[in-house]
């Protein structure tokens, strides 16, 4: 894809891959951990700022990139201890509050660049190779997504993954069966934050600066919409949701920035589409695109099999008659 796409579309492809990394972790959190986070962009922000600060202060850029998911995971483990005592919409609003607090703090701290943000982030360099163009970052983001998907698949197929599925169904039943509910909830919360931190680190080096405006609250809602549209509790659903929503938002942004459109058109169109997509997904595909399409294909196969059996039965009846 990075080679086939026109140069102007490669940045969109990079952002799509980074969104898929974050949404893969959020899909684990929502589909397997049974928790809803409206502040996933806060860990994306922590990863971005961590990588930027470490690189600006002279640490090797590859070390800064590796440190981004570690710092995001540690932050999630720290704040997750009190937050995960909450459930449902209480937890969702608490994670949203975390992002609002982080945005306020980043905008007020001089060491974080304030509202202007951190600029002059050096180019990422790994083993003497400098990532200097969009295509190189596209391959980097693609490699990061592959690692994240591999980890997520191994987690899902493991014994803890089965415990998480039981936990998402019923915490009481899972705990009575010996599943360490509190530990598993904190682990999947931290893992999803680590994925977001990795994406944030790549984003910081790709864009070259980070600021509070780079991580708006709307971004967290985007991630939730991607999970719901693609399908919770499935890795392919996360990838499909990230792809569909990113491309749709790019199309709406192009429409909203056309000549004669008001300045607020891109934001208004985005909010309208989020609402419409959520309503349509809940009405017609409550399990998401991937599972909905898979269910439809199974129905078609069963319908075809039933028609074949019925036709054969009719032929046997006619022949016997």
Automatic annotation (TrEMBL):
Source taxon at top rank: Bacteria
Assigned GO CC terms: plasma membrane
Keyword set includes Ribonucleoprotein: no
GO molecular function, one term: branched-chain amino acid transmembrane transporter activity
Protein name per its UniProtKB record: Branched-chain amino acid ABC transporter permease
Location in the cell: Cell membrane
Keyword list, A-Z: Cell membrane, Membrane, Transmembrane, Transmembrane helix
Membrane-topology descriptor: Multi-pass membrane protein
Originating species: Actinomadura rudentiformis
Residue ranges of the TM segments: 12-31, 38-56, 62-84, 91-107, 137-156, 186-211, 223-252, 264-285
Record bears the keyword Transmembrane helix: yes
């Amino acid at each position: 894809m990075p080679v086939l796409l026109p140069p102007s579309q490669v940045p969109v492809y990079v952002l799509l891959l980074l969104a898929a990394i974050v949404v893969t972790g959020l899909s684990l959190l929502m589909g397997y951990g049974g928790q809803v986070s409206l502040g996933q962009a806060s860990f994306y922000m922590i990863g971005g700022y961590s990588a930027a600060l470490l690189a600006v202060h002279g640490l090797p850029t590859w070390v800064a990139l590796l440190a981004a998911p570690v710092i995001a995971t540690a932050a999630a483990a720290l704040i997750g201890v009190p937050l995960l005592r909450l459930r449902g919409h209480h937890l969702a609003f608490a994670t949203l509050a975390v992002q609002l607090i982080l945005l306020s703090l980043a905008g007020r701290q001089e060491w974080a660049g304030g509202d202007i943000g951190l600029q002059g982030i050096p180019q990422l360099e790994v083993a003497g190779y400098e990532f200097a163009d969009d295509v190189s970052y596209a391959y980097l983001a693609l490699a990061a997504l592959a690692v994240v998907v591999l980890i997520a698949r191994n987690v899902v197929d493991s014994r803890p993954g089965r415990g998480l599925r039981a936990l998402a169904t019923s915490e009481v039943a899972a705990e009575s069966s010996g599943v360490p509910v509190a530990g598993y909830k904190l682990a999947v919360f931290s893992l999803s934050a680590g994925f977001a931190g990795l994406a944030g680190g790549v984003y910081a080096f790709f864009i070259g600066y980070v600021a509070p405006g780079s991580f708006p609250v709307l971004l967290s809602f985007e991630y939730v919409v991607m999970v719901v549209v693609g399908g919770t509790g499935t890795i392919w659903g996360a990838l499909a949701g990230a792809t569909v929503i990113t491309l749709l938002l790019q199309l709406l942004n192009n429409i909203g920035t056309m000549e004669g459109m008001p300045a607020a058109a891109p934001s208004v169109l985005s909010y309208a589409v989020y609402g419409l997509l959520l309503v349509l997904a809940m009405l017609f595909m409550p399990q998401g695109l991937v599972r909905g399409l898979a269910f439809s294909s199974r129905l078609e196969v069963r319908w075809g099999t039933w028609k074949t059996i019925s036709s054969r039965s009719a032929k046997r009846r006619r022949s016997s008659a």
